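Batch job 17 of 40 flagged for manual review because the log was empty.
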Amino acid sequence: MTLIKILNPVGKIVFLSFLLFGTFHLASAQSDFNVNKINPLLLTDANAVIRLEEDYFEILSKSEAKLHHRFAVTILNEKGEDEHNQMVVGYDKFTKITDMEGAIYDASGKPLKKLKGSDIKDYSYGAAGDDISDARFKLVDFGKKSYPYPYTIEFNYETRDRNMMFYPKWIPINAKKNAVEKSKFKIKTPAGFVFRYKEYNGIPVLKKSSDTDGLPVYEWVLENKPVIKTESYALPDNEFLPMVLTAPSDFEIQEYAGNFNRWEDLSKFYYILNKNRDVLPAATVAEIKNVIKDSKTDREKVLALYKWMQSRTRYVSIQLGIGGWQTIDATTVANKGYGDCKALTNFMVATLKQAGIPSYAALVRAGEDAEMNPDFPSSQFNHVIACIPLPKDTIWLECTSQTTAANFMGTFTGNRQALLVMPEGGKLVSTHYYDSGQNQRNRFTNVKLDENGNGHLLVRTEYKGLQQESRERLFHNYSQEEQKKWLLNHLELPNLELDKFEYAKGKEVIPVISENLDLKVKNCATKTGPRLFVKPNLLTRSLDLPSNTSERTGDFYLPSSEYDISDSDSLSFEIPAGLKPETTLPAFQIESVFGSFVIKTAFDNNKLIYSRKMVIKGGRFAAADYPKWIDFIKKVRKADRAQVVFIETKS
């Protein structure tokens, strides 16, 4: 993986991944890109080989730095081309691109093409959608299937940066099928300059030296690294990929100065940056007082004001100048009715202030299963939410959504740490975690079978907690026609007719979406001569079995957003008259460190009653537990395939 210089400002809901490739001048005379020179071990299982990656971060002062990057990659096949054929460099008011070059070489290392100005396209991030931004990016597209494999791309650029809140991080390898011939990360500082860094997961040893001008140089080098063998249930990237994180100690941006030595320092800087931007117009204050006039508790006031705020504002990404971190003021949001995550959170905090309720903005790294390194204070956040610490409870608010329930922190912001923004410096706190008992899917199904095995199904399902997120998107963002199409694609039943369906959203503290389906399914059961074969587990997909079921050496990870779940199914089959069970009714039970699984079946008065309940607990598990996990999956899958055979009774 290449160096990624984190330029993303806080407040952008759709996050763009920048592939930032820095610059040394093209030097084909000094580099041999002949494919035959690649160590054969690096070609094994590889889609591409990083021939040379040189990242050079030159710190000029507390307020300015230069980034140089040279990147050469040999493309071995179409998958490698899909990953590397485009290069993107972002820039804005604080970051200027001062040089950019590129070239393509054939398998022998002979130059085929040099990058021209016409090959570089320039775009604005705010060109479409709800974005207001002065950030731009240059895109180089080397084309697809334009050159025979293998071939090599070299791309170099240089930037000059006056936003020193962000230092680069170095991740020389990734979990994709890229081998690395050589990758180098180099930092040069002024004499006596202090910055911070932290090494993770077996990164190569740091080499300290002096440049020709006597200034300090810090350098890490990784060489001849084959493709990482990926395993099922891999740990999060930040727990196994070698990396170096860097951050400022003292820094300056525009007229603001700060340091990031502690989380409290970062919190205090963000507070100062946004101080006195919470003033509201008199008319808005009067409106707030009216909204809460009948509320009897602080909690009731918070819920009423959040609902009010959702009804009168909408999300727009605003990234102008330092606005990537500094919010627009609450008065502007009140008058305009829109803002980004910073602005809407600031508006919500200002609103609660008028109600006499203390609350705080909280910086968070958003995204499904997003990870941060809490042991290294630095700008690792990309989103802002509101935190209201009431005496007996803490309420979290996602201020960019017009539909999310109060206090629901789902897969986007839940189960992670957030930094409270306070005048004297805040601290890292945990957002809400939903366990298996709160992430439920409860399904009740009545099935009426005819003598040919065709079924009429009435299905009621309640989705709760994280499990309701997919249905909530369906409920709020899809038309009825789109909902039906989505259901037909996701209901794993053959010969399906969806006659009716409807959704409803409850008002529970933990969000619940109910789904009602009226289905007709041909061959719901299989009729063969005098026998009818019924598979009771009709609608629930079983656990997937990974390709690797053997023992492993490293720990494995079941993400809580996927595996902290509780699923229950209750099915009642109306069996045609004149049939009786020929086989034993399915029954099964298992308990393990991963959870539990129970199946019960009964037959009475021509009704087959089937119940299934599975509770799973995610988390990190030792390699020694892997065979137990595979055994758990296999037993669940076998039990889910069980069927009941009915045979006609003799008259």
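Reviewer: the log was empty due to a logging misconfiguration, but the result itself is present. The domain at 440-648 is CATH 2.60.120.1130 (Jelly Rolls). Unflagging and moving on to job 18.
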